[in-house]
């Protein structure tokens, strides 16, 4: 009887549609571009199966979102996206030990203690970074975002026909890449105790600095200098149109010296903000920065890493966030090139499905 049932169900299964493989999708909607990462995972290996970058033309983010979503190779059940900049805030707090449920309940009631926003105007979330058993304390990362900012993002995705599973914050998504995948090719051969890394995501309108100790975030702040400031500086300094300045910024060819010189004030402003933050962290947390990693679209500017390294007197490298991934041939790794510097937030969002 048992064998007969096995044969029966075996025959039936042949006519049932096989379960479709699904992918994890992270969508980073920036100021000037939409960036998408599509991942799959088998055992402990993550594979990049697709990526897309689409400019937002005339402020029409909806069209750009639909275009990148049309590139998906595998059906997507869940989409992860994020918000950033003004209206968002991340705090790092030491608190008495408690369960995560009690912690979340506490923040629901006392959020105004930690964030300069009216409690009824924000969404909050929190995460326990680590527990200090001897002191009966724990380190907590708490995040807040204005409801209007999140609600607009949810509506935008709904209008594009892809409801979001999750809306996070850009800096946390980017830190998630380091936490899950490590540094890839930049991973130190000898592990240093309390390795302290500053991660600068250089966007178009705002850059975000996150300092991590042993791959866990401990400090985050926004610096309101980005790629648009570099482009404006080139346009004004060289007397050319904004469009021509953007092209020259991306491909300076034999005019690199002029481009860097034109960007001098914007770079100096960013350097000053970086120095203030890094000095504050060294004083308050007793951790000197071992390495500054640059990523994001504005980090593609040639000479920027060398300039920061000379001025800040710290080791600086550009960080390719997809460097630790297996890349499928159909993802066209050759075409990606240094565009991978733009994909960190989208990658961190996609990884949430497997966290």
For the record, give the distance between the C-alpha atoms at the N and C termini, rounded to a whole number.
43 Å
Form type: globular
* Count of distinct strands: 14
CATH class of the domain at 185-318: Alpha Beta
Q: What order do the SSEs take from the amino end to the carboxyl end, as H and E? A: HEEEHEEHEEHEHEEEHHHHEHEEHH
Our estimate of the beta-strand percent is: 25-35%
Biggest sheet statistics: 6 strands, mixed
Strand sequence of the main sheet, in spatial order?
A: 8-4-1-2-3-14
What is the tally of helical segments?
12
Sheet/helix structural class: alpha/beta
What is the helix fraction of residues, given as a range? Answer: 25-40%
Radius of gyration: 22 Å
What brief labels describe this structure?
disordered N terminus, 355 residues, 14 strands, 6-stranded mixed beta sheet, alpha/beta, globular, 28% strand, 5-stranded mixed beta sheet, Nucleotidyltransferase, domain 5
Provide a short characterization of the protein structure.
The protein is α/β, with parallel strands linked by helices and about 350 residues long.
